[in-house]
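Weekly puzzle thread! Below is a chain. First person to post its structure in token form gets bragging rights.
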Amino acid sequence: MDRAEIIKGKRLKLGLTQKDFADALGMGLNGERTLRRWENDETSPSALEFKMITSFAQNIPFTEVENNISFTFIDLFAGIGGMRIPFHELGGKCVFSSEWDKHAVKTYKVNFGEEPAGDITRIIASTIPDFDILLAGFPCQPFSQAGLKKGFSDTRGTLFFDIERIIAEKKPKAFLLENVKQLKGHDKGRTLSVIVEHLAELNYTVSYAVLRAADYGVPQNRERIYIVGFNKNHFEIQDDYSFPYPKPINSPTRLGDILEHDVDEKYTISDKLYNGHVRRKQDHKAKGNGFGFSVFNEESQYTNTISARYYKDGSEILIEQESKNPRKLTPRECARLQGFPDKFIIPVSDTQAYKQFGNSVAVPVIRALAKALVDEVDNFTRLTVNSID
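Winning reply:
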């Protein structure tokens, strides 16, 4: 098999377009055209370039050790697996995952060696293997019916309903749910009230807190709400129990610590885009509000929150450059901004990578929560066993 066939075969095995693969390989502005010429055998990569291609995603970064499993968990609304990584690190085995976005599924499969089940609304809860802990970063949605204590009818038609029915069927020992900070005030607080009420009716403790990524070691001012619960049918837990959320580590953060030093020119924004940013910011300022693009540098303590729309214009986080327009973050920098380890493979186009990391979680926050949650499960287990003895 010649090099052209090997390159194309590698790409197709990963399920990537030429644009995806060129971006994933970091081939720069004309990477797609260069890759196309390689696949058509019009030109040939150097030995170093060919080695880079054949070694890409050769090994799965996050593989579980089957003979040293401490607990089991499931990963719902899995995205690219940001919530899974810390529980994997603690010796947990993921027995089921679900994600509907086809591009996120590619990234998940390359990094964890398994393809998540699709649309969670079509998954029958009883078919999911038994597990100890449920993880879910779910979308925030309003509930159509007024009032509480309406059972499943109150949440049916929302994606929280699928979490609720799976917990009701499988009765895990614990759960960790993640959502945007705005969930606290959504629908005048009613959405969160319904969620707490329904989880409590399933006989779980329910605690929630807003945690900020910059307080746990990553230079990003990202705030999210985290809801934690434990099964009172499984453990003996006092009525006034409140989950001990991890304290901030109080470690200074610096944006320069996660920035790459050799960045392709394609990430520098055009004059047209930059001038548009400047004009819109001036218009906002004239109206008395603070909206507009934001520029950071290596010494910045942290950035704004990266969002799924970052791929559009990068306005929330632009990086200062000497003697030229600011630039967008690279996908690898986005991964680092969310605390993903560098061994995490990015096998999609830049556009999809921006969406995926913008939709994901700050891994160090989940890492701190995972440690506290697993410790509590172990503590409750010991206390319950001792009380029986």
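Puzzle host: Confirmed. Bonus trivia for everyone else. The mean pLDDT is 90.
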